Amino acid sequence: MKEVSLYQEIFDELEGPVEDLTGEVSNSKLKSRSLKYETEIPKLEQMCYIMESVLLTKDEAEGTTVYAGFQKVSRAEDIWDRYFDLADTVDQIYLFGEDDATLKAHPNIDFIYLPEGHELTREWFLVIDQPLAKSMMVAYDLDGFGVYEDEKLRNFKGAKSNNPRVIKKAIDLLEDVIDSY
After folding, report:
1. Which residues contact 14 (CB under 8 A, 6 or more apart)?
2. Range of 157's domain?
3. In what order do the strands lie in the sheet with 92-98?
4. 160 within a domain of the structure (yes/no)
5. Count of domains forming the chain
6. Which CATH number characterizes residue 86's domain?
7. Over the stretch 118-149, which tens digit does the pLDDT of each residue have?
8. Among residues 177, 181, 171, which one has the least CA distance to residue 67?
9. Which residues pair with 140 in a beta bridge?
């Protein structure tokens, strides 16, 4: 399987300082079109939820492809019902992660099982490719699993963008991984 780090390829594409998103952060900050950040899991969950909600509330998400990286497939268990709903509205979802859980199948969801040690197993990402609107976030796990008793305390450094050029680069990288799967 092709090795790639979405974080390493995308982070420097965005300008601006790295913002600290720990503690209290407004939804408007999490909705930013372009942002470099450091944060913990709850803010990443919020950011992804905001991005995913756009697809759930659209009447028509035809032509949309979603690329979601959870590090480990088991990290998607708590939101699997939402992903099932997403899969009913979009054309395709590719879910990347280590094969550590079996989730209920959906015809519009393909699992891309990452081998242990693959660079993407340190990254959490969501790339939404819609015909008229594109968005993405990627975050690198600074701590790794097993450091904290409460995994939600893990620290991440990442970037968020709506720039079509940056998102195309991310999609091309992920498609290369899919093609090599």
Report:
1. 34, 35, 36, 159, 161, 163, 166
2. 6-17+35-179
3. 18-20, 35-40, 155-161, 134-141, 123-129, 65-72, 92-98, 109-114
4. yes
5. 1
6. 3.30.870.10
7. 999 999 999 999 988 899 999 999 998 878 78
8. 171
9. 123, 157
